[in-house]
Records
---
Amino acid sequence: MHKLELHISTSLNRLAINYKSIFYFFRIITFTAEWWMYIAYATLLLIIDYNSAKQPIQMGLIAYSMHYPLYYLIKNITKRRRPFERYNYIKRFVAPPDKYSLPSGHASASIITALILIKFFPELNIIIIWPVLISISRIVLGVHYISDTMIGLFLGYLCFYIAKIIWVVY
């Protein structure tokens, strides 16, 4: 599995190395999942429709209050080095937000936000593509392996699911 994962990660990274348009596309995509963008998204929701924004923001606070401690715990237990640190032929195109690779915080945070938006605004269901693109962008840009993003997506889903249960109970 490791060889297959490395081969796929390397191949995706080569796309960014060889094609500037792919680099720019995925750089923009990954930018949409920077940590501070979630504050901007919540603020935008509040500006657009204050009353409709309160519930998704509250659920987001529940989900993210679980997410970040779990995310940092997993990162500091596994201490997985990033692809560009382990393999000199993988190029890093963005500065990672922290030291370790597993799990992808961009993937986990984006799936939480996408699922919350779909729960409260079902007409936005196309947004489910966003976490997939975020996950691919992290691999293309050389800062994550596929397993990092898959585990990140699972972590984000788990935090959303638990937040949803808490939301229903309270």
Note: Residues 50-78 form the longest helix (29 residues).
---
Amino acid sequence: MSEVKFYKYRIPNFEKKRLPGKLLVLEGTDGVGRSTQIALLREWLESEGYGVSATGLKRGKLAGKAIQMAMEGHTLGDATMNLSYATDFADRLERDIIPSLRAGFIVLLDRYIYSIIARAQVRGADPTWIRNVLGFAIIPDATYYLQADLAHLIPRVLNARGFSYWESGMDFLKGRDYYDSYNEYQARLIAQFDAMAEEFDFVRIDANKDIREVFKALKNEILELIKDMKPLKKAKRKKEDEKKPEPKGEKEAEPEPAKAQAKKPDAKVKKETEQEPAKAQEKKTEVKEKKETVKQPAKAQAKKPEVKEAKSKETVQQPSRETASTS
């Protein structure tokens, strides 16, 4: 359970003093590998049973799309852009970050208010003003600063996507090509992050190393931070196991399929018992039919002598008729 603290002032109508989740931030300049590490950390934490939520700049429903459209058209001034980023952050804080922390999730943030501050100060914004604008931000449980130098950043960016307008600072570094602008702008951003590392207590991670080595370093840091947290899935399984009733005896513990098998022979015997009278009746009918078949020849034999006797009578009577006629 983490204590909720704000940098300058609490947001309205927020009464909670502690939240069960953890707020973890990955910071660093463009091309340092934050998104890659967020994906790896999320996969690992979810495999361990933790609930994980991830978000980043320009992903809010209220102002995220408007900022993206403004960047495509280069239509907003510096102060308006900073206030738009603050609006986007406030929306995500209310809709995504705090609800996830309240639910006991580990929230992974790809950039936080520190990137907004660094970009604003590089473009000449007043440091006190921009910090007051973003003073409603919750202080994270940990901020991991992925620290890399330009010698390692430039090849990564060229191999991945190339230099972009905003990542090269072309909106205020006029009259330079992309390569020179990128070097100048990123050098200024790195200087701002290095200064803020002391102010905001960043945990420095050497991002010049291989992706897997960076992930291992982050994993070790996070394991120490979340050692008191219980994975949500494991806790849920434990509750379900506790609710299951204990078996009272061997007979009651007998599985249902075995009981069903035990009942089947009884049903079979019953069925056979019911079928026995029917079979006996069928046998009686067959015997009766057989007897009748046997009696028929006897009746036929009895009729034959009668016919023979009748014929003999007729034979005896014929001579008498003939004798009468001759006389």
Note: Strands lie at 2-3, 18-19, 22-27, 52-56, 106-110, 142-147, 203-206.
